[in-house]
């Protein structure tokens, strides 16, 4: 459509797919038998929620690498509304879907309408 | 994986699909905006399509785009992708006992398709790995259903984003739906005090260490949260 494709760039992209496989499979590529020490196994059960919080917090609370100083930010209200919805509806099915929909229903008007 | 009859005919496959469907709109919006970002960066349509279809890792794609358009050497792009993906190395240690009964090609395919969300949903449903072959089969079927929907939503919408890049405005911030999907899953995991501690520590550490290159703040945050939780745990 626009830019010319470069074979070298295509090769790098194939390499990146290889990096995805290598990192996601890192500890189960080799079939040598070993197991994690039990403290590490216990510790890893805290990893999933930590990973999510580590990705989310900067995306909601930072702008241009700085902690936001202004509460006029659509992301704060959308995140709060989404979380409230989740804990209100958590017994019902598809509460996560509700978090996305309610969050965006708060985010879009504030972001597009008020420019927050 | 999802193309194996033993997996897609299993009842747990359906559960994996259902759990994944509830976050799919967020993944889809995120994939869409990643597709748009690739085209707006000046990549060619073929390059953007190839990346959408095979790389299957949003954060490493977004990190690689500026390097590719600036003509960085291959090893720099690959090393950056590796560092941004380091959290998956941690996840792979966690997933190892769930995977080792599979032949190598199935381990590689399952691992390749298991993104952050599939990993989190999978370990939420199965806190312990299967003790017998029926349980292990059920776990793989769940993972297959989960990853299958995730793959279709991400890759499908990335491709749509590449094709329709000129008509989709980036300033709307539709990609925020992806963050809301992660937030919903985070809420669903927040079932014990120690997990709340883990989330709080990781969130604060990720912000404090934000200046680190290659998104290493995420790895630092996971390490800090896990280490602190292990120290606080009752012996």
Give the secondary structure arrangement, pairings included.
The complex is a heterodimer of chains A (116) and B (235).
Chain A: H1 7-25, H2 38-44, H3 47-61, E1 62-63, E2 66-67, H4 74-88, H5 95-113
Antiparallel strand pairs in A: 1-2
Chain B: H1 5-8, H2 11-21, H3 24-40, H4 45-54, H5 58-69, H6 74-84, H7 86-99, H8 104-113, H9 116-125, H10 133-163, H11 176-189, H12 193-208, H13 216-232
Helix pairs in contact in B: 2-10, 3-4, 3-5, 3-10, 3-11, 4-10, 5-6, 9-10, 12-13
Description:
The complex is a heterodimer of chains A (116) and B (235). Chain A has 116 residues and is mostly helical. Chain A has one domain. Helices cover 65% and strands 3% of the residues of chain A. In chain A, strands 1-2 form a two-stranded antiparallel sheet. In chain A, β1 and β2 form a beta hairpin. In chain A, α4 (74-88) packs antiparallel against α5. Chain B has 2 domains: 5-189, no CATH class; 190-235, no CATH class. Chain B has helices at residues 5-8, 11-21, 24-40, 45-54, 58-69, 74-84, 86-99, 104-113, 116-125, 133-163, 176-189, 193-208, 216-232. In chain B, α3 (24-40) crosses α10, α4 runs antiparallel to α10 and α5 runs antiparallel to α6 (74-84). The longest helix of chain B has 31 residues, at 133-163. Chain B is globular, with a radius of gyration of 18 Å. At the A-B interface, α1, α2, α3, α4 and α5 of A face α4, α5, α6, α7 and α8 of B.
């Amino acid at each position: 459509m626009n830019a010319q494709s470069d074979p070298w760039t295509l090769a790098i992209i194939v390499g990146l797919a290889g990096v995805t496989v290598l990192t996601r499979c890192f500890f189960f590529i080799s079939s040598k038998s070993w197991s994690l020490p039990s403290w590490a196994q216990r510790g890893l059960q805290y990893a999933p929620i930590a990973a999510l919080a580590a990705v989310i917090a900067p995306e909601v609370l930072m702008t241009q690498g700085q902690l936001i100083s202004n509460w006029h930010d659509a992301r704060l209200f959308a995140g709060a509304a989404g979380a409230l919805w989740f804990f209100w509806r958590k017994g019902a099915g598809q509460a996560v879907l509700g978090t996305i929909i309610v969050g965006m229903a708060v985010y879009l008007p504030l972001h597009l309408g008020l420019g927050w | 994986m999802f193309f194996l009859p033993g997996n897609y005919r299993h009842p747990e496959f359906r559960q994996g699909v259902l759990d994944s469907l509830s976050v799919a709109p967020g993944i889809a919006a995120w994939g869409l905006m990643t597709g748009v970002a690739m085209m707006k960066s000046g990549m060619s349509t073929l390059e953007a399509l190839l990346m959408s279809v095979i790389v299957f890792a949003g954060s490493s794609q977004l990190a690689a785009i500026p390097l590719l358009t600036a003509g960085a050497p291959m090893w720099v792009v690959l090393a950056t992708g590796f560092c941004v993906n380091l959290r998956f190395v941690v996840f792979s240690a966690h997933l190892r006992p769930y995977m080792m009964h599979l032949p190598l090609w199935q381990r590689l395919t399952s691992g390749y398709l298991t993104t952050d969300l599939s990993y989190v949903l999978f370990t939420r449903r199965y806190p312990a790995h299967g003790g017998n072959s029926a349980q292990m089969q059920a776990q793989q079927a769940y993972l297959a259903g989960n990853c299958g929907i995730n793959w279709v939503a991400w890759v499908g919408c990335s491709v749509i984003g590449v094709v329709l890049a000129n008509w989709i405005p980036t300033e709307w911030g539709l990609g925020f739906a992806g963050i809301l999907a992660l937030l919903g899953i985070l809420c669903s995991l927040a079932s014990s005090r120690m997990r709340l501690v883990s989330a709080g520590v990781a969130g604060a550490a990720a912000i404090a260490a934000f200046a680190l290159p290659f998104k290493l703040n995420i790895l630092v945050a996971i390490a800090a949260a896990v280490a602190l939780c292990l120290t606080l745990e009752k012996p």
